[in-house]
Design brief:
Blueprint: H1 14-22, E1 39-43, E2 53-56, H2 66-85, E3 98-102, E4 111-113, E5 118-120, H3 135-148, H4 157-179, E6 189-190, E7 205-206, E8 215-216, E9 220-221, H5 237-244, H6 246-259, H7 267-275, H8 285-297, H9 301-313
Parallel strand pairs: 1-3, 3-5
Antiparallel strand pairs: 1-2, 4-5, 6-7, 8-9
Helix pairs in contact: 2-3, 3-4, 4-5, 4-6, 4-7, 6-9, 7-8, 8-9
The chain binds asparagine and zinc ion.
GO molecular function, one term: metal ion binding
Domain Peptidase M4: 66-148
Keywords: Hydrolase, Metal-binding, Metalloprotease, Protease, Zinc
C-alpha cells in the first residue's frame, strides 16, 4: 500500500542562513557523544549500510546530487523550524547531530527515522520518485525523532496515529513556513510531487480533506479517514496509524484555519506544547485533544475554544 510519508521548491531564505551560521560546529561546546555537526548527509550508494559515506556537511557547497542537496536543505530547514519557532535544539533538545542517508537500497519506496538517523529511498521510478523531493516528508521523518525524544507515542492504534499525525503537522508547518503561506493559503498536502506522472494523485495525504489525496488504478484510493465515525479498526499498519492519522490531521487543519494566520506560529506552537507537556506514551486522541486545549488556554480562552471545536468537529470530543 501507499501508506508512506511525502513537491515544491525549497526557498532557503536569509533567516535560515543565519540559523546555520549560529549553529555552526564551533558554536557549541562538545556536550556528549551526539553533539557534533548540526547535521550531515550521507549516501548508502544503493546499499543498506548506514550511515554510508559522508557527502555534505554544513558549509559545504551544493553537491550537484539532487537527493543529497534536497536532504541537506530539508534537514537544515527542519532544524530551523524547531529552533526558531519552537525553541528546540535539534531532536533531543541538546543539539544532537541529525544524520541523514540518501540513495538507500534500489528502487526503495519509503523514507524513515530508524531510531537513530533519517533514511531516504530514491523511489521505484514508476510510481514514486525521490523521497527527498517533498520537504514536508523530510520534516515528517525528523519529527518522528522529536516525538521519540518527547512523548514517545507508542506506534500502535490511537497513540500511533497521533505519532503519525504530529509528524504530518510539523512537516506541513515546515512546508507552509518555507512557502510563506498562511493557513488559508496552504494546500495542506503531504508529499506533493512524490508521485510520478503516471499516478492519478496529488500527494500522499491531504490534511484538509483526508481520503482525497489520490485515487489510482494501481495504488487504489487514499484510505485516510477524517472523523471518528469512520475510524478504521485493523491489524494492518500498526492498527491503521497512517489511516486514522487523518482524524487528528483534520483537527489540526480546522484549528489552524480557525485561529488564522501562519499555522506554525499559532496551532503549530500549541501542538508542539501539547507534545512536550508530559503526556504519556499511550495517550489517545481524547487525551491529546485535552493537552492541546490546555496548551491553547495559555494563549487565550478564545483560542482554547477554537481548538476544542476542531476536535469536536472530527468526533473526538463531545
Ligand atoms: N515513511 C513511513 C513513516 O514515517 C515509514 C514508517 O516508519 N512507517 O511513517
Ligand atoms: Zn511517519
Amino acid at each position: 500500500g501507499a501508506s508512506r510519508c511525502g513537491a515544491q521548491t525549497l526557498r532557503i531564505d536569509a533567516s535560515l542562513r543565519v540559523a546555520r551560521a549560529t549553529a555552526s560546529p564551533g558554536a557549541r561546546p562538545a556536550a556528549g557523544a551526539t553533539a557534533g555537526r548540526p547535521f550531515s548527509v550521507h549516501t548508502a550508494r544503493h546499499g543498506t549500510d548506514l550511515p554510508g559515506d559522508l557527502v555534505r556537511a554544513p558549509g559545504d557547497p551544493a553537491s550537484g546530487d539532487p537527493a543529497v542537496d534536497e536532504a541537506y536543505a530539508g534537514v537544515e530547514a527542519s532544524l530551523a523550524l524547531f529552533s526558531e519557532v519552537f525553541g528546540r535544539d535539534s531532536y533531543d533538545d541538546r543539539g544532537a547531530e541529525v544524520v541523514a542517508t540518501v540513495h538507500y537500497e534500489q528502487d526503495y519506496d519509503n523514507a524513515f527515522w530508524d531510531g537513530t538517523q533519517l533514511v531516504f529511498g530514491d523511489g521505484d521510478g514508476t510510481v514514486f520518485g525521490r523521497f527527498t523531493k517533498p520537504v514536508d516528508v523530510l520534516g515528517h521523518e525528523l519529527s518522528h525523532a522529536v516525538t521519540q525524544f518527547t512523548a514517545d507515542l507508542t506506534y500502535e492504534g490511537q497513540s500511533g496515529a497521533l505519532n503519525e499525525s504530529v509528524s504530518d503537522v510539523f512537516g506541513s508547518c515546515l512546508k507552509q513556513r518555507l512557502l510563506g503561506q498562511t493557513a488559508d493559503e496552504a494546500d495542506w498536502l503531504i508529499g506533493e510531487g512524490i508521485f510520478l506522472p503516471s499516478v492519478q494523485g496529488r500527494a500522499l495525504r491531504s490534511m484538509a480533506e483526508p481520503g482525497t489525496a489520490y485515487d489510482d488504478p494501481v495504488l487504489g484510493k487514499d484510505p485516510q479517514v477524517a472523523s471518528m465515525d469512520d475510524y478504521v479498526d485493523t491489524q494492518d499498519d500498526n492498527g491503521g496509524v497512517h489511516t486514522n492519522s487523518g482524524i487528528p490531521n483534520k483537527a489540526f487543519h480546522l484549528a489552524a484555519t480557525a485561529i488564522g494566520g501562519k499555522a506554525w506560529e499559532g496551532a503549530g506552537r500549541i501542538w508542539y506544547a501539547a507534545l512536550t507537556s508530559g503526556i504519556a506514551a499511550d495517550t489517545d486522541f481524547a487525551g491529546f485533544a485535552d493537552a492541546t486545549v490546555t496548551a491553547a488556554g495559555a494563549v487565550s480562552p478564545a483560542v482554547a475554544e477554537q481548538v476544542r471545536a476542531a476536535w469536536t468537529a472530527v468526533g473526538v470530543t463531545g
